[in-house]
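# step 3/5: fold
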Amino acid sequence: MENVYCYELKMKVRDYECDLQGIVNNANYQHYMEHTRHEFLLHAGISFAEMHQQGIDAVVARLNIAFKTPLKSGDEFVCKLKVKKDGIKYVFYQDIFRIPDLKCAIKSQVDTVCLVNGRLSECPELDQLLTPWLTT
């Protein structure tokens, strides 16, 4: 899949996100990616709170992260994403690049699924809202 991203979000590493080695603790990359996905969904007109009130919950089913270059306190970075539909899953490809040199910090794949009223299910409402951003 070529690297045509449909959304990006710039952020900055905060001191408390780093470990004793002075680099971002691995768990914080998941926070960056989740925040980016949520901001993307808001950009797409999708509210997690409203979906939940309708009995629709999108949840992470699988996560794969390849760590390339560590980020350090004060580093600015951009988290980019693209999304495709694969059967019942929404697959988010999320990559983080350090600014200004755009060196890749992580490459990831986040598989999400929908629970509708507590049951694994297709979600036509989400399909319709995400259609303009889905890649093939």
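# step 4/5: annotate
The helical segments are 26-43, 48-53, 124-130.
# step 5/5: archive (pending)
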